[in-house]
Amino acid sequence: MQIDGDGLYLVAGTALLLGAVLPRLLRRYAVSAPIAFLGAGMLLGLVVDRGKVDPITHPALTERLTELTVIVALMGVGLAIDRPIGWRAWRTTWRLLLVAMPACVLAVAGVGWAIGLAPATALLIGAVLAPTDPVLASDVQVQGPSTGPGAEPEEDDPVRFGLTSEAGLNDGLAFPLVYAAVFLATKGAIGEWALEWLAWELLGKTVIGVVIGAGAGWLLGRMAFSAPIESLRLADSREPILALAITLGVYGLTEVAHGYGFIAVFVAALTVRGAERGHEFHEDLHWFLEQLEHILTWGILLLLGIAVTGGILGPLTWQSVLIGLLLILVIRPLSAWVSLTGTAMNRSERWVTAAFGVRGVGSIYYLAYAGKDFAPDLGWLWATTAFVVLLSVVVHGVAVTPAMRLLDARREAE
Predict the structure, then answer these.
(1) Contact in structure between 299 and 305 (CB atoms under 8 Å)
(2) How far apart (Å, rounded) are the C-alpha atoms in residues 253 and 188?
(3) CA 367 to CA 361: how far, in whole Å?
(4) Which DSSP letter does residue 287 get?
(5) Among residues 32, 104, 362, 371, which is most buried (max CB within 10 A)?
(6) pLDDT tens string 122-151
(7) Residues 337 and 351: beta-carbon distance below 8 Å
């Protein structure tokens, strides 16, 4: 039996009902909600028209859906962070971004090249799998903004703060690496495009994203909290739709200006968060985005499960499995552990931070975005990326609850 047309409303309604029930049912078990949704998607793949949701056949739809999910998540995590941005206060973040992330890319690309991939393909799979995910990592992130008198900042937990701030920025910072792979595939030798890539793709677009994000966030924050015209002060009316307006507006403006919209959205969220930091309106904005993010995430996980049933893992090879296992179990933990040497984290906090580099929706987005330039290897790239996301969802989903409980117990004992 194939479900199509109106039957999809039944599927959507059932999925949303599961989304409301599963987190409560699974709270005491080593099964996360993302694992359950992937399983549900695999079952749905037996009855729906799988061809209409195949990411390889419909890359544009996949790109737009994952893009929307990522920017909503980036705005949400930016609003959740209480700690003002700064070099010393964010030292953990900069180390994860500037040491661990490039090390992961180089290591994965090196493994890919060693097992026979073309240099451009090896670099692309390293870049696609580089960002940790702000969407699927909610269990190890700060849970929301601390507002009101006497509120204790959630991000005083260095593990949650480090993973949240890392995920907020490295989605955007993966873009230059993806462009480097695309240039290597389409423009030839590095000497032909290295200067252009360094000046524009790495520096120029990043600066545009930061400037627009900071500027737009400052203006919108001032308008919402302290506009001279009372009707413009949306914080007084507690209108949470402002969160989505900022997300879409800042992202769209930055993309039109040819900057990195992911960076701009996160910077805008941090800037808005800094305006009237104790105001309870931040909780409304974060709650609204969190609900929207959940809906989008559930949909993507269901579609990924359907794609698995439809055969997206068909081109999977032992090389794909090797890359996935090494990244999740060896490369990310070791590179992050080394990058955090010398920080204020204790040994247990460093290991937990290093281990939970969740891969997810961001990787799917980048492959949908850049895959058209890698047509001969596209099936293998999708199979490898899907396998890594599945592996991350299962391994991290099963491990997160006991790991965080053990960490909390050790902190109390100390």
Answers:
(1) no
(2) 32
(3) 10
(4) H
(5) 362
(6) 999 999 999 888 766 666 777 777 665 555
(7) yes
Residue 3, strand partner residues: 48
Instruction: Please report whether residue 1 resides in a domain.
Output: no
More confident call, 4 vs 264: 264
CATH of residue 231 = 1.20.1530.20
Q: Where are the beta strands (DSSP E) in 278-414?
A: none
- Rounded to whole angstroms, how far apart are CA atoms 150 and 144? 15
Question: pTM for the complete prediction?
Answer: 0.91
Say if 194 falls within a structural domain: yes
* String of DSSP letters for 252-267: HHHHHTTS-HHHHHHH
Asked whether residue 171 is assigned to any structural domain, the reply reads yes
Tokens of 170: 């490295």
DSSP state of 3: B
Cβ atoms of residues 140 and 354 within 8 Å = no
Range of the domain at 117: 7-413
Please count the structural domains in the chain. 1
- CA–CA distance, 88 with 228 (Å, rounded to integer): 35
Asked if 123 contacts 142 with a C-beta cutoff of 8 angstroms, the reply is no
Round the CA-based radius of gyration of the chain to a whole number and report it: 21
3-state secondary structure (DSSP) of residue 363: helix
Residue 352: how many other CB atoms lie within 10 Å: 24
- Residue 24's identity, in one-letter code, is R
